[in-house]
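Hi R.,

Here's the chain you asked about this morning:
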Amino acid sequence: MMEIIEEKGIKIPNAILVSGITETEVDEEILDFVKQYGSITRIISIPDPTTESQKSLIVEYTSGLAVRNLQPLLPYVQQARDNPDVSYHVTALPNVYTQKMGKDVTLTYLKDLKTLATRSGEDFAGILKEMLSHISEAVDPTQNPELVVNEPHDATSAESVVHPMANLNLLTQPPVTTADAPIYSVPSKPVSVSPATPLLSACDLNPPEVQRVVVEHIVRTNDLVAHGSSPSRLRTFSGRTPRPPNEVDYETWRSGAELLFRDPTVSDFHRIRRICESLLPPAADVVRSADPMASPSDYIQLLDSAFATVEDGD
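And the predicted structure, written out as tokens:
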């Protein structure tokens, strides 16, 4: 997949990855879903690495705004209405690309460091800690950790020196080769003290990538909680005659939509999404022509004009 992204020159911030494609008419459901969020420049089919019977699609939007609107819902899973055995997974392509390329780059970097340690005869752990120190300086050039040298150990000094992440027991004090290396504060009980390397910074223990993943998880969790308190999904309506047994008539569907409109916890964006998800052709074709900036009420007016009961003088 990485080769196809480079070869096709795909704009990664504007793209999403849709897996589980069966290359049948059922796939139109997920395609209709992704088309709701913006204009699509191109769709590229690629083999799915998890299965031989299905494929994946890279959907590239004209603008990155479409991906940002989708981001709170991702990763998104949709089950096919007519085939319960088929489910689609939608993820943001930047996340997939960063994880894959970041892992490859990291493994290559560690392999090079191991080769360097073998050729130089130095300890690999020592080289790795030195490189982490350089990375920390590159992230924050003004950072200069202060170490306490031979000072009494008390509660006040400990609060000013101990690293915020020290309770994770991730910091060690391996010996260094320089004789004049600073020494950490010594407890009241006499113990042997060995030179120590500088403490790792918060960026080393909690890099920006991890912080971003945590924030996205919190946002998605809050969004799911809000969804859980909202009314259930609208029942399926197509407007076909005779009416299929698994669908409701328009009046019943309209009553469910009114309940959805009365719920203050549901945004207009999610109201439109639930309306579109509940519709099948020809009803879905009626709202397909709606303006991208249309409100949920505009969608209802279009459907009323096509399917609502009309009463005349007779």
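The first strand starts at residue 15 and ends at 21.

Let me know if you need anything else.
M.
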